[in-house]
Specification:
single chain, 184 residues, alpha/beta, Lambda Exonuclease, Chain A, five-stranded mixed β-sheet, three-stranded mixed β-sheet, 18% strand, globular
Length: 184
Amino acid sequence: MEGYIPISFLNDFIFCPRSIYFHQLYGKIDTRLYQSTDQVAGTIAHKSLDEKRYTTSKNVLQTIEVYSSRFHIGGKIDMYDKVKKLLVERKKKIKRIYDGYVYQLYAQYYCLIDMGYSVEKLKLYSMDDNKSYPIPLPIESEKYYNGFMRLLEKIRQFRFDTPFSPNPNKCHRCIYNNLCDVAC
């Protein structure tokens, strides 16, 4: 049986394919030992969702586990409103819409669809400034859909011993650069 790709890996893989490996090395170690200030702030911001305290509405699913057997991807969604048929991915602060954000939302979308839910709208939400960013459905954006499919294929084909060119801007911000043999 082919293993599934965790939804959280999509954005991480784009940042640095090697970071996924290093994250796994930390395993069950207390995240306070290695997370950056930004990551800690994001975890705190998600707390009400993670504890299912964001809303008491029975129409809103919060942090449920989802899976797509079609794409072999799985993980958790932030919020899905069954009445509005709206899937929302919340970020602490969105300064720019990164492809990885959209691909995570697409993965969540396909998981929900494969689980029998109807999703008609996608949205990224920036908590710090209370801004919403509508995202086109995969059938509405050939660019994002094709990028999503290419990313899944790249993740499936990735080998750690593949030649790797570090990105100094990313390596400088990477919390795993002390573990990486090619970090800048």
